[in-house]
Amino acid sequence: MNCDTKAIVDWLADGARSAADAKCMVAELCDRLVGCGIAVSRVGVFILTLHPQIMGRRFLWRPGAAVDVSDAPFEAFETEDFRRSPVRRVVDSGIAVRRRLAEENCPIDLTVVHELRAEGATDYLATPLVFTDGSVHGATWTTHLPGGFTDAQIAGLDAIMAPLARVIEILTLRQLANDFLDIYVGNQGGSRIFNGQIRRGHTETIDASIWLSDMRGFTSLSDRLAPQKLIDLINRFFDCQVPAILERGGEVLKFMGDGLLAIFPIIGDHAEACKVCDAALAAAIEARATVAARLGSPGDHDVEGVRFGLALHVGQVMYGNIGSGNRLDFTCIGPAVNLTARIEKLCSGLGRTILASDEFARHCPTKFVSVGDFALPGINVRQTVFGLEGEAVQQKP
Questions:
Q1: Closest CA to 355 of 321, 385, 395
Q2: Which of 106, 146, 325, 351, by CA, is between 20 and 30 Å from 278?
């Protein structure tokens, strides 16, 4: 059967434009290989990523199944299994690794080799994918054909490596841009930026439930703790809050030292606003419990126990690009944000962790009790502030 991969090379050189993303590209590539006579039975593409939590991403194809995409943490790079993997050898050396599994004297020196031979595979090839910046990634090719890959099939695979690396690099950079936007500005803000909302002053007014939280006593902690311990404590503090926010549809907009600003966008009528406020309140209660469980008592962070304040409000915010010249921030501003910040400052004096505005409390009428009327800096009208019913009032340390 013909093993000419020129049509595949041309397709890749043209950007593999029929494939919407990397997952679809790998699936179509493998189908095209089988169609031109290279009977691959398993193909893996392994890309090292620039991500704070993910070391690499794997795309694994098998006939008749959807491409499986999985991420590996940085810890996986140092495991014994990965050290002994052909992909690690290819990444480290930039040299292809081949194991003719059907031959009796085939070295069984790699974990995957033993597994594939037990499955009846006859040949295995791991090849480098070299990006334009010189970084090395990897692809693996397995067949069950008697006798393994022919010389013509190996030559056909060799021919697609360079254009495949270019396409994978482009798709990886596109995914990298998406990942970085998600990490640094949030999913919703990142999507808006990626879709072209990038001009300074490009904002829109939206309704949202607003969350603003702040660690108490941070200034004194900064004086007492070693820098790395302080950073570790702040990260653990945010870890207690962010998952609860994201799981309930919130968007983390900004970390301000030890403070956190988030919104829960509201699209719809009063009933929908009540649902969003309920979700924000549930996230706040979960965050309070998590902080108490993980940071509420003396531990390796060398403090007596972390306390924090959290204010909830609902109102209109201006959401979009704000900044100067080439340094922009995708965030929200407006009187509603200012009011939320002023309410949060009351938490310590009132001995409360969670406080809410009158507007927020009216969306969750059975959950709150009034804790008083207050004149707040920069706010013209006295504000009635609410605390959670049944929340124990904390004594000042």
A1: 385
A2: 351
Q: Rounded distance, CA 36 to CA 143, Å?
A: 14
With beta carbons less than 8 A apart as the criterion, state whether 173 and 238 touch. Answer: no
CA distance 353 to 311: 8
pLDDT value of residue 396: 56
- Please state, in angstroms and rounded to a whole number, the distance separating the CA atoms of residues 214 and 211: 10
Element (H, E) at 86: helix 86-93
Angle at 318 between CA 315 and CA 324, to 5 degrees: 150
What's CA 5's distance to the chain center, in Å? 37
> What letter does residue 132 receive in the DSSP assignment?
T
339 Cβ contact list (under 8 Å, min separation 6): 313, 315, 357, 376, 379, 383
Pairing status of strand 308-324 against strand 354-357: parallel
Closest CA to 323 of 185, 187, 209, 210: 185
Question: Which domains, ranges and CATH numbers included, belong to the chain?
Answer: 6-185 (3.30.450.40), 187-388 (3.30.70.1230)
List all residues 6 or more positions away from 42 whose beta carbon is below 8 Å from its beta carbon: 60, 61, 62, 116, 121, 140, 141, 142
At 145-186, the pLDDT tens digits run 999 999 999 999 999 999 999 999 999 888 877 777 777 767
Bridge partners for 153 per DSSP: none
Task: Give the C-alpha separation, 98 to 101, whole Å.
Answer: 9
Task: Determine contact, residues 279/264, Cβ cutoff 8 Å.
Answer: yes
Quote the tokens at residue 27. Answer: 């699936």
For 198, the 3-state DSSP assignment is coil
Confidence at residue 5, expressed as pLDDT on a 0 to 100 scale: 92
